[in-house]
Amino acid sequence: xxxxxxxxxxxxTLPDKLESAAAAGFGGVEIFEQDLLSFEGTPAxxxxxAADLGLAVTLFQPFRDFEAMPEPQRSRNLDRxxxxxxxxxxxxxxxxxxxxxxxxxxxxxPARAAADLREMAARAARRGLKLGxxxxxxxxxxxxxxxxxxxVREADHPALGLILDSFHTLCMGDDxxxxxxxxxxxxxxxxxxxxxxxxxxxxxxxxRHHRSFPGQGELEVPGFLREVLAxxxxxxxxxxxxxxxxxAAPSRRIARDGLRSLVWLDEQAGLAPLPATPALSGIEFVxxxxxxxxxxxxxxxLAALGFRLAGTHRSKAVQLWRNGGANLVLNAEPDSAAAERxxxxxxxxxxxxxxxxxxxxxxxRAEALRCPTFRERVGEGxxxxxxxxxxxGTLVYLVQATGPGDRPxxxxxxxxxxxxxxxxxxxxxxxxxxxxxxxxxDSFVLFYRAVFGLAPDAPWxxxxxxxxxxxxxxxxxxxxxxxxxxxxxNVSESTRTGxxxxxxxxxxxxVHHIAFATADAAAAVQAASQRAAPLLDIPxxxxxxxxxxxxxxxxxxxxxxxxxxxxxxxxxxxxxRHAYTLPFQDRFFFELAERGVGYEGFGAANxxxxxxAQQRGRAR
Amino acid sequence: xxxxxxxxxxxxTLPDKLESAAAAGFGGVEIFEQDLLSFEGTPAxxxxxAADLGLAVTLFQPFRDFEAMPEPQRSRNLDRxxxxxxxxxxxxxxxxxxxxxxxxxxxxxPARAAADLREMAARAARRGLKLGxxxxxxxxxxxxxxxxxxxVREADHPALGLILDSFHTLCMGDDxxxxxxxxxxxxxxxxxxxxxxxxxxxxxxxxRHHRSFPGQGELEVPGFLREVLAxxxxxxxxxxxxxxxxxAAPSRRIARDGLRSLVWLDEQAGLAPLPATPALSGIEFVxxxxxxxxxxxxxxxLAALGFRLAGTHRSKAVQLWRNGGANLVLNAEPDSAAAERxxxxxxxxxxxxxxxxxxxxxxxRAEALRCPTFRERVGEGxxxxxxxxxxxGTLVYLVQATGPGDRPxxxxxxxxxxxxxxxxxxxxxxxxxxxxxxxxxDSFVLFYRAVFGLAPDAPWxxxxxxxxxxxxxxxxxxxxxxxxxxxxxNVSESTRTGxxxxxxxxxxxxVHHIAFATADAAAAVQAASQRAAPLLDIPxxxxxxxxxxxxxxxxxxxxxxxxxxxxxxxxxxxxxRHAYTLPFQDRFFFELAERGVGYEGFGAANxxxxxxAQQRGRAR
Lengths: 620, 620
What we know:
The structure is a homodimer.
Chain A (H helix, E strand, L loop, with lengths): L2 E4 L7 H11 L3 E5 H5 L5 H10 L3 E8 L9 H19 L3 E5 L10 H17 L3 E5 L10 H11 L4 E6 H5 L8 H4 L5 E6 L9 H8 L10 H10 L6 E3 L4 H5 L2 H18 L11 E10 L2 H13 L3 E6 L4 E6 L2 E6 L5 H9 L2 E9 L2 H10 L4 E3 L10 E4 L5 E6 L9 H4 E3 L9 E11 L4 H12 L2 E2 L3 E5 L2 E10 L8 E7 L6 H8 L3 E10 L2 H10 L9 H11 L3 H9 L3 E4 L5 E6 L8 E7 L11 H13 L1
Parallel strand pairs in A: 1-2, 1-8, 2-3, 3-4, 4-5, 5-6, 6-7, 7-8, 9-12, 13-16, 18-22, 23-26
Antiparallel strand pairs in A: 9-13, 10-11, 10-17, 11-12, 14-15, 15-16, 18-23, 19-21, 20-21, 21-22, 24-25, 25-26
C-alpha cells in the first residue's frame, strides 16, 4: 500500500519537506495548505516538484468550518470550495479533506450537514475531484467517526466518502468496532495514522502538540490498521502528526522515522512480516572514541575501578579493558570513524555492542526498517562484526551470543593478555544511560522499540538542582539480572542540568553513564576506594532520611554511608545498592550497581540526591 | 504578614536558595525536604544559615503517605515521624506539613486518619512541635480542604491544624466558602499560595510542572487570600511553586519575581494598597543601542521608511529620528549603558518609553514592587526621565503625557531640526514585540501586569517553519487606536525559529520587531518602496487563499498583493492591513500596520506565512 506523509509532520519549506519525504522512501504526501500558502511557486509548480520526486499528492487538507453553516456563510463556503478545487487541479490531487466544523455558528443539524457536503461533492465531481469527511475529536457537533459516517451515508454522493484518523478515534477511547459492517470499502476514502502518549489533557492540545509516529506513543495503532484493512481499505497509509519537536527537528531524520514507523506498523498489524526481533542477552562491550592521550587518562580512570588491559587489537590502535564480565573498548585508531568523532566531540562513547541470537537476522530486520547499517573494514582473519547506526550516528554492534564452550569474539581480533581470563569483581554491564536533546527522544524510542523489540518502562521525572530531567528506560532480553539490556534515555529542556550540559557539549546525544553490575557493591566500592577511584560523595542527610524511610538499623545505614552507596527498595522488598564516580573530564561517569533479584528500576528515588552531588562537585 | 517561599521554587543548592530568598526580601522559607537531603552540612547548619540570613524556617515539608495506613506501615510511619522531628529540632522549625495520603494501601477511614494524626500530633507536642494537614488535589481519599478539616477537627489535638494551598483548592474549581464559619483561626496553621494557567490536564501534572507565582496565571488567588484573612489567618503568606522553568532559571530573578507577586497579591486582596497603576497613552519612543557605524546603517534603513533626523541631543551622541508620530532614538553615546549593551549584543533596542499620566507615582509603584529603577545622568537644563528596569535589564522610560499645548519632552534635551515638526505619514507606534527565552516569559508577565496594570490577551500559537512560537500580548491604556500600549511577548522552545534564533543571539530577551501605526498601509508601503526600503515578499498563494477566505474581489486582492500587504479581519469585520521589512542585520525588523478601529489583534492568522517568508529570506 502507498506510504504517505502529511507535509505538516516535517520542518522547513515545502521543497524541503517534499525532498525529505521522497528521500525517506514515501510514495505520497498530503499537502497541508499552510505549506502551500508559504510556498513561493505556483500550485502547479508544487505539483510538478512532487511528481518529479516520485510523490503522489494523496490529499489536500484541511478544509475547515464548512458544513451546516447558516447563510451567507454557506454560500461563501461553497465559493471558497471552488477556489480550493482550482488549487487542487493545479496541484494535481484528487481529494480534499473536510474536517468537521468547530465553529460556534454551525448548526446541530446532520441533515443540513449532509446536504452541504452533497452540494460540495457535486461541485467537486464536475471537476473529477472528491472529498472526504473526517470527524475531529473536538468537532462541535460531529466528533465520532460513526456520526461522520451517518452524514456521509445520508449525503449519498459518489464523490463523498469517509476519512478516518487513528488519533481522533483512539484519543476518545473509541474504536473501529462495526466499521467493516457499516461502511462499504469504496466509501472509505482515506486513513490517517498517528500515535500519541497517553496524556490526561484536552484532545485539541493533545492533538496539536503531542502526536507521534506509530510506535512512539501508547495508542493501539496496529489494531486500528487491522480494522481498516478488515473493512477493505486499500488506499494510502498516511501519517499526520502535529508535534512541536518534529517541527523543530531536521526534516530528513523525521521523515526517516516516519517511514520506519510505517514498516513497523505493517509488521505489527500482520500486513508484512519482518525478520523477527532478536533475543538479546546483554551488553558485550561499550566502545570509546579516544586519542592516545585521552586513552591514557581514561585507562587510568578505569584502572582505579579495577579494569585491566586485557587485549590489544591485532591491526588497530584499539584496546580491550576488562573487569570480570565488563568489557570496554578504547578506540584510538587514526583515520577511523572513532577518530573523527573524537576530533569533533572529545572522548565519548562511539559504539555499544549487544549480544544477540542471530546478528544476520537482526541486520536484515534493521535494513527492512531503513536503518543505515555498517560493516567495518577488517584485517585478515579478523571477525567482521555487523553494526546498525543509531539515530545519533553512533554504532550498535551485534555480537553473536556464545555458549559456555564457544570461542569468545575477542580471540579473533585481539591479542589477549594471559591474565585476561582471570575473574574480576564485576559481573558485566547493568545499564547504559544516554542523554538526548528533547527532539531526539522519539527517534530513539522508535529505534529501540522497532528494531530491537525493547519495551519502554514507565517514565520518570528526576529533579536536577537546575531543572527537570525526564527519563524513560528501554529494557529487553533474558530476564536474569546482568543478561538484560537496559537503556535509560534522559532528556532535559533545561541546558543547566547535568543532562542538558552534556547534551549541549555532545551536540544532541550521547552515553552519559555506564553502570557496571556487581554482586557486592560495598566490596566493589571498597576496592575502588583503595585504588583512589574518584567517587561521588553523598551527604549525611541522605542517610538519615534513608534510615527513616526504610527503617534501616544504624549499622546498616553506617555501612551504606561508609561506601558512598545509595539505596533503593521496591514495594516487594527487592533492593538496589549503587555508587557513582565523579565524571571523566566533565563528560561521562560510571556507576557500580548491585541489583537485587527482582529489582527492575534504576534507583530513580536517589536521582535528586545524586544529581545535586554532581552539580556540587562541578561547582567546586 | 511574614512573606515566605518554599525552597522548591528556586534552582540550585540549599545555600543558593536561602541567599536568593533573603536577597529578594523574604522573611521566611519553607524547607523542601529534598533540598536538605542534598545539602552537605547538618540540619543545624542549614538552620543557622537561614537564621544568619534573617530567614525564619516557616515549615518543613512534605511528610507523605502517613495517615490511615495498615500495620506495620502505621508504626513505621510514626517512627519515621520521630526521625523527622529530630531534623526539625536541629533545623529550628516548629511545623511540618503532612499531605494527604496518595498510596493505594491507605484506608478510606477518616476516623483512622484522625487517630493517626492525633498520635503524631501528641508526639510532636512532646517536643514543642506541631503539624499541619493538607489535602492534595490527588489525595486518595482526602482531596478537598473540607475533608481535611473534618479529620483535623475529629483528631482534636492542639498541635494539629489545617494547611491550605490555593492551587489544590482552585484547580478543582473549589473555593473557600464557609472557611471562616467552619475553622477557628487558631486551627488555620499555614497557607500556601500558587497561581497557574487554566489548563485542561490532570491536577498532578498541572501542579508539578505548571504552577506559577500569583499574577502569572489565571486562578483567583487574590480572592483566596481575602478568604483566609477573613477567617482570621495571620501566619506566613508562603509561595509554593513547582515549575519546570523556575527550576532552570537563575534563583535570584525567580526569588525577586516571587516577592513582587506577593506585594501585588497584597494589593489585589486589599491588604496593602500601592500607588495606583498608570493611565498609559502610548509608546513615546523606542531607543536603540548603536555605535557610529551601526547608527549610520540603521539611519539609512529608517530613512527608507520615511524617517528623518529630527534632533540631536544637547550633550550626548544621541539622535532622534522621526516619522509623523513615531519617534526612534539612536544612542551611540560612549561609556553609557547603551554602549555596554551594544558592545555585548550589537545593535538592539535598549529602552522603551511609555507615556503615563504620572511618572512619579508609577516610579513609586515600581519601587514598592521591588523593581530596580534608574535615573540617568543629565546635562544642565536637561530633563531627567525616570525609568524602570525590565526583567532583561532594558529600560522602560516613563514620559509625562502631554496635552495639545504642552511643551514636548524633546525640546529640553534635543536640538530639534526645524522640519522636525512637519507631519509624516506614520501615526505612532502600534506595537512592540519582544522575543523571550521560555524561562523569561513569566517574569515579563508579572512585570507588565503588576507594575503597569497591563492585561494579557488570549494566547496564540504561531507555526514557524522550524518550530512553534507561543505568543501572548499585553495591552493597556487609552482604547483609541495608536494611543494603546501593545506588547506581544513571543517565546519558542525551538532554537531554529526566527524567535528562537533571535533570543539565542540576544542571550535571553529583546525587542524583535516594532510596528508603526499608519492610517493608510498601502500608501506607507508605496512610499517606502519608492525609497527602496527592503520589504518582505509574500507568496502569491497567500493572496489566492485570502480571496477565498474573505471573498475579496480581484481588484482588492491585487492591491494588497501589489503592496506586500497581509490582511486580517475579525469576526465583527474590523480589518488589519500590515507589511513587514526584511530584518536589519539579521536582527530586528519593522512592520507597517493599518489597524481598523475595533481590531484588537496582531494578524496572528498571517504569522505562519510571514515567518516562512522571513526564513526563506534568510536562506537566500
